[in-house]
TrEMBL record:
Source organism of the structure: Methanobrevibacter ruminantium (strain ATCC 35063 / DSM 1093 / JCM 13430 / OCM 146 / M1)
Family matches, as Gene3D superfamilies: P-loop containing nucleotide triphosphate hydrolases
Name of the protein described by the UniProt record: ATPase
Span of domain AAA: 25-154
Cited Pfam families: AAA_14, DUF4143
Residue ranges of domain DUF4143 in the record: 210-358
PANTHER family for the chain: ATPASE
InterPro entries: AAA_14, DUF4143, P-loop_NTPase
Amino acid sequence: MPSKIIKREAYIRDLKDYVNTDFVKVYIGIRRSGKTSLMHNIIDELKRDGVNDENIIFMSFESREYIHINNSEQLDELVYKKVENLEGKIYLFFDEIQQVKGWEKSINSYRVSIDSDIYITGSNSKLLSGELATLLTGRYLTIHVYPFSFKEFLQYKNEIEGVEITKYSIDELYEEYFNFGGMPGILSLGSDEFKRLALKDIYNSILFEDVVSRFNISNIDLLQRFSRYMISSTGEIFSSKSIKNYLKSNDIYTSEDTLLKYNEYLKQSFFISKCKCFHLKGKKEMKILGKYYLTDHGFHHALIEDNILKVTKILENIVYVELLRRGYKVNVGRNEDKTEVDFVCEKSGKYKYIQVSYRLTSEQTLNREINPLLRIPDKYESILITTENHDFSKDGVRHLNIVDFLCGDDV
């Protein structure tokens, strides 16, 4: 069991109504985002509720103990042997289940033949796109696990490292979060250089284990160049043609089809996330290509050297992922006059519009940022998020400091 973990209350709360039901709980998310620790959170809750240790079976298919389990036949033999003499409900936890070939039928058979409560994790968005989705129609719950939010980052610093959380310390800790993100495994590392090396290690494991190995990529150099291009282009409109031309200028030749496949593979591994364009007047998604953001912005700092030129885009990235955590569907907004609103957020049919700017250096800058919000035809709330502490609310547009946004829950 991980020695240093926090209780991720938001995920536990979302799960509460599904514990002890025959719904299969499926946790998906980028590698090393804390899915395993979240399983241990659940196990701790079960033990506190009086469940016996022997009725809780946890298997991680990346551990030495279970790495030899390659297919469903081997998995079935092991599981049925473990449960044969147990009485009462059995709690089955399968970590990184995609490592086992044919696991879908096994999971469904346990649900039917064992008095069980089942939890699985995976690091690929297509985990439930195939047979399991058909077998379990209406009988599974998908929970997307993200790296630590800033609130969870502060919780870790307080509970695990003993840092007193004050206004002053929050501002200091925000700088660390801005630079290195919220991947749980790097937080205990002392130096900035160790954090960078750890993020590079996570990046390589995603690239090689979730992309190269899974999709049998032969041109690894091209994949690495493409992925770094996507990292450096965070928050910019994606165009396979422009990437192809960029690579061509460096004497690297490939097809747009190959680049689109690589893009899809990085999405499936949760390394990047697509933010589609949205027509503000027609209230519908547009077919033109959207922007891409990193699931954790720390990768940008670790892998790209010119971060100073990208501060606004990194800030956008932080806001984008936080909005996803809070359950919003998020798009890029386009007005009739082609002006852009950074984020159109929709939940339960209601909208919020958000513009992100690093600093407001003048009245002209403020007007430039809020004018696209003022052109939106409906009257839903509009918000401007910056690093400024002064209140720049104007003409019905509410201003929020980034730290207040991340620490609050009113958006």
